[in-house]
Amino acid sequence: MSELELGRTLLLYAWAFGLAGIEIEIEGGYGWAERLPTWFRSRGAVGRVYGAAMGRRPLTGYHVYAFTIPLLLLHLPYVAGVAWTLAGELRTLATFFALAVVWDYLWFVLNPAYTVRRFERGKVWWFEVPWIWRFPLDYYAGVALSLGLAGLSAWAAGEAEPLRRHLWMLAGLAVLVGLTVLAAPLYHRWYRHMRRAGADDRPATATFPPPAPEETWAGGMPDLHPLAGSIDDERRTR
């Protein structure tokens, strides 16, 4: 593995670690945006197609942004001087699916509500799919798709180098994830330390509510009033 590829792998791992950490801070122990003020869709054409591709998980507004932003950021080199090629695009997509698997698994590894010990079949409602050994089928599918795209990248480039580099990246990520599993208890200890009794400074912080809290959903069953000019408004004025 070259120094450039090593640096790329370390950066991707740090990115996955950071994304997992952000989501733990936002969601706590309730994954897949279960208790966030976002929308859920499992009905309709888009909801059904997404559910079929994602193991019957609902599409949420939270995940639209959570998935789209990293995918866009991986394309930054193409607007910063790197020439776009089909081979390059395929490897970019391969990198995204590898990142997604690592990022998702680190959420469980680092999350005190789960940890590696509690990450198993029947304890994750959004992974009601077949499991092989210790992982849901989705992880194997994500890695397989990543490898397939890297293979197509090598085919488009006319050489095996893109696939070779991708394999080294996956190996490096696997080693880093393994080290994270070993060190995860330190993170759990820090997580609890930051939330110990009397440590939170919100009571000492001068906060005030938003100017129009009724315009958003703060939890519970959504019961938002229709927007001006909506179909419901038009029906009532007839």
Which helices and strands occur, and which strands form pairs?
Elements: H1 3-27, E1 40-41, H2 44-53, E2 59-60, H3 61-73, H4 86-110, H5 115-118, E3 131-132, E4 135-136, H6 137-157, H7 161-193, H8 231-237
Antiparallel strand pairs: 1-2, 3-4
Helix pairs in contact: 1-4, 1-7, 4-6, 4-7, 6-7
Tell me the major beta sheet: 2 strands, antiparallel
Approximate strand percentage: under 5%
Counting copies of identical and different chains, the oligomeric state is single chain
Low-confidence stretches: 230-238
H-E string: HEHEHHHEEHHH
Cα distance spanning the termini: 69 Å
Helix content: 55-70%
Structural class: mainly alpha
Any idea what the shape is?
A: globular
Please give a quick description of this structure.
With 238 residues, this protein is mainly alpha-helical.
